Amino acid sequence: MKESKVKDEKRVDGRDFDETRPIEAKAGILHRAQGSAMFKFGSTMAIAGVFGPRKVFPKHKEKAERAILRTDYRMAPFSTKERSRPGPSRRSTEISFVTRNAILPVIVTEDFPKTSIDVVVEVLQADASTRCCGINAAVLALADAGVPMRDLVVSCSAGKVNGKIILDIAGEEDTEGEVDMPVAWYPKRKEITLLQMDGIVTPGEAKEILHLALKGCERIYKDMQESLRSKYTIEESKGDV
Amino acid sequence: MHVFLRENVRLISMEENQELEQAKKERRLVIPGDHLGDEQAGHGTYVVEGKVYSKYIGLAEVRNGKHIVIPLAGVYSPKRGDGVIGKITDIIFQKWIVDINSPYEAVLPLSDAVEGFVDLTKEDLTRYFDYGDIIFAEISNVNRQKQVQLSMRSPKCRKLWGGRLIKVTPAKVPRIIGRQGSMVEMIKKLTGTQIVVGQNGIVWVRGDNEDLAAETVLTVERLSHKGGLTDYIKETLEKKVAELKPVKDEEKVEEAEENLEESGEEEL
Quick check: pTM over 0.80? Predict the structure, then answer.
């Protein structure tokens, strides 16, 4: 028997409708990358590594007056309930592309002409909103790498499940919900850099979902800023190990 | 290239941390997008509608009435007049291609490297600088296309033989050098090593106490944002050098004994 995904006041996992899953963010987790970060939305987890600015290869892709940004989104075979085939797929190509578009506006690419900034996002655990998680991890990794940026981009999803509009869709809500809308937000310029949606909604509902997602972004923005600052404050106050 | 890994170095101790706390009050830790003020903008910042924001994760301060941010991470961006340490990666016609730890490679023309006439039909350029050689050179020009030209005209410029190379964050190089070179000079004197610091974040160390000198340089890098660093490093280094010496003497005695034994065997 199918259980309703939304009960009177709370959701299946006990959250409020406008509450995100617990967030965990950490910058500087990989030694070999120029910059790196981990981002967690409950049980969805992504890590990102940044390489560069470095020489462009193949050379014909280089731009004379700015740096190019290349992103690669992957999902680990063990990240889903059923093993996902490793290697590029239609889905990962699409997400790599939207991740790049979401992040590009904040990067000051003119500072490093003729170079490439390569970002690799690996999803280690998938439980809905992996692209949002990936974007957040990538942005933190870029800041950690010392790439010139105007601001941080924040990403969060919202949607509609059993007629209720809810923030940060997770697990069963994703597979059985009606609408899922991932959004990325550039807070300083108040610009939306990613907006996708699947499902059927009325224009009014779509607006409502978007506003809820942006509210979530504002909250996550603070968490991300805090995690970046804490990298240095924690690193500095670490005792002898 | 031998690169001394950061992971090998011990983390911060309590006293070091206390002094760090003090330094933090003077310089503020900022992240990309942090608002710094409405005055003039300097390095590491950008301006939108008269407001100055940070472009990097770094330390913000006001220098000469300008807001600047010193990044805590990042790659080296070549600047004219910088002395850099590089590795010869290629030789093309009458110039050397040098890897200077930056996204842009540098070019060292023969005319700026060797004095006097060189007959290219008779001489091979590897006679001067061979593939893989490490050199200290000065950046004579960087154009808008980020083509970097090196020169060996300055008397400081030379080929570096032996030793080892350490990588540090380029933004922290000024701290390693210290005011008028006070920091390097002190490390050189106490450890008895030769040290050359490149603005591109490569430090060359050579001598008997390479390990100690390398470790000290990395400690300076790690604690670069705190005040009174030179005195602090001097103190700890003096202690370490004192510890090191007796050990070394014993080793020498043991070695001498071993040598004696070996030579005795040979005679038999």
Answer: yes
- Here the CATH number for the domain that contains residue A128 is 3.30.230.70
Residue A86 lies in a domain: yes
Question: Predicted confidence band at A11 (pLDDT cuts at 50, 70, 90)?
Answer: confident
Q: Are A114 and B146 in contact (CB < 8 Å)? A: yes
**Number of structural domains found in chain A:** 1
- Cβ atoms within 10 Å, residue B115: 8
Single out the residue of A149, A166, A159 nearest to residue A195, CA to CA. Answer: A159
Locate the chain A residue with the closest alpha carbon to B24: A233
Q: Tell me the chain B residues in contact with residue A229 when contact means C-beta distances shorter than 8 Å.
A: 29, 31
Range of the domain at A123: 23-232
ipTM of the complex: 0.88
Residue A4 lies in a domain: no
The string of pLDDT tens digits covering residues B160-178 is: 999 999 999 888 888 888 8
Q: Answer whether A73's CB lies under 8 Å from A136's CB.
A: no
Q: What residues form DSSP beta bridges with B178? A: none
Q: What is the DSSP letter of B174?
A: H
Q: Does B12 touch chain A (CB under 8 A)?
A: yes
